[in-house]
Each structure stands twice: as C-alpha cells, then as structure tokens.
C-alpha cells in the first residue's frame, strides 16, 4: 500500500497529466512540466510573510464587519441600521433558533476559527517553533476549509437587499464593505496558500524526513 506522504512526493501536471517526482527547490525556483511547460510547483520564499499579512488584514476586516452596521434601512422615514448583533436579536425574537445557530456558525464561529488557526499556524511556522501544534493545525484547517461559507451569507444578504430596494431606502454600511473586503482577501489567501506546500515547508522547517 502506498502511504499518503509518499504520494506527497509526486506531482501531476494539470494539463497533460504527466507524473513527476518532486525535487527540493531553492528560493524562488519554479518547476515546469517537460511536455507542456505548465508551472508544476514553486518555492515561494515569501509565502508565509505574505499570507500572515493577509490573514491579519482579514482579521481586522472581520472585526469591523462584526461591530459596525451592515446596512441602513429607511422605510418611510423609519430608519434602522442592521448590525450582526441586531440580526441575531431579531432572529431570537422570532424564535428562529435553528437559523440563528446556523448563522452563528457560518458567520462567526467558522471564520474566526479559520483565521485564528491560520494565523497561529503561519506564525509558528515562521519562527520555526511548535512542530506538533502546527501539524495539528494543518490537519484541523483541512477539515475547517469546507465550512468557510461567508460568501453564502454575503450572497443571501444581496438577495434580500434587492427585494427590499422596492420598498425601502437602503444604504450600505461600513460592515458591508468590510465583509466584501474579507471575501476578496479570503480568495487571495486561498490562492496564495497551498496546503501541499505548507506540508512540504513543515517538513523542511522542523527538519524531519519522510519515514
Ligand atoms: Zn504537462
């Protein structure tokens, strides 16, 4: 049976599906496919620093998104601003506990857990400490990633806003922009941070060999 970390040494070309065995690269070196010249993998020396900066910015955006108004609604002179807290209050008032709980996980618990564990992971890998913790975090993040659904919340927010446009005056709040900003950052982080490279970097940083 082939062990998982043995598979990690292999890489397949996305375009022509040629199989290669990975070789260690030096700083900023790139490996290309012999057949079709597609980029296979690279050693991005700044990956940790770049990602750390992005994660911190995303954290600040999330903090703003939680504390400021998402939208201001004006229905015939009656003005109301919607914050995340007031959203949960309204849901509780209407006894929508299941929806409330779902929202709590999608918008609050999962994003915070993902950002926080990514931050701790990158930070410790950067200073080369806590090999066990970072290994557990890599595994945890692989499980958490599919639950990153702030985008779904954002889309449902847009849909409900479009419905409200007919009957109310809607102004976008600071938190709305912060949510949007966080989504964009999240896409960049996901693109920048390859788990495959993180595992490789993990082995390099803490200096163990694949058994
Ligand atoms: Zn190829």
From TrEMBL:
Keywords of this entry: Membrane, Transmembrane, Transmembrane helix
Domain of life: Bacteria
Transmembrane parts of this sequence: 52-77, 97-125, 137-161, 167-189
InterPro entries to which the protein is assigned, alphabetical: PqiA-like
Name this polypeptide is given: Paraquat-inducible protein A
Natural source organism: uncultured Sulfurovum sp
